[in-house]
């Protein structure tokens, strides 16, 4: 095969692989649903069924969706977090290397703690000694989620 032929083949492969992954992700795996604010999309993956069902029965069901607690405010922060989480959730689920029961990671815990403090500022301003999970991680022990673990997802 001439060098121009190999270039076409490599170009087709370089174009085809990302296209195939994109189609798989956004059509078969319902990746488009993660761009919405619909909580049911979080249960596309069976590992999240318990959290979704817990949220449906929780006190926050009527006032907050997954994105309200698990993504930062602002368009860029929200979709950057969704993209990062979506990639890593897909990676761990596909490879089967996730913890069961699933556990929140440090960065996501900090986002959730910040959301608690933002929505409940009138209640928390007198008791917070820092900024959410970061403060708890630094040793002062302040953490909304540690004491109120079942508020967003009944456990």
Describe this structure in words.
By secondary structure, the protein is mostly helical. 57% of the residues lie in helices and 0% in strands. It has helices at 3-28, 49-57, 66-70, 75-95, 106-119, 121-124, 132-137, 144-147. It starts with a helix and ends in an 8-residue tail after the last helix. The protein has two domains: 1-35; 48-147, Multiheme cytochrome fold. The chain is elongated and about 75 Å long. The protein has eight helices and no strands.
What spatial form do the alpha-carbon principal axes imply?
A: elongated
Q: Give me the secondary-structure category.
A: mainly alpha
Query: Class of the largest domain in CATH?
Result: Mainly Alpha
Q: Beta-strand level of the residues, as a percent range?
A: under 5%
Quickly give the CATH architecture of the largest domain: Orthogonal Bundle
Q: How much helix, percentage-wise, in residues?
A: 55-70%
Please give the largest β-sheet: none
Treating each run of at least 4 consecutive H or I residues as one helix, how many helices?
8
Helix-strand sequence? HHHHHHHH
CATH superfamily of the largest domain: Di-heme elbow motif domain
Q: Overall mean pLDDT score? A: 82
Instruction: For the record, give the distance between the C-alpha atoms at the N and C termini, rounded to a whole number.
Output: 62 Å
What is the CATH third-level topology name of the largest domain?
A: Multiheme cytochrome fold
Overall number of strands: 0
**Rg (C-alpha, Å):** 20 Å
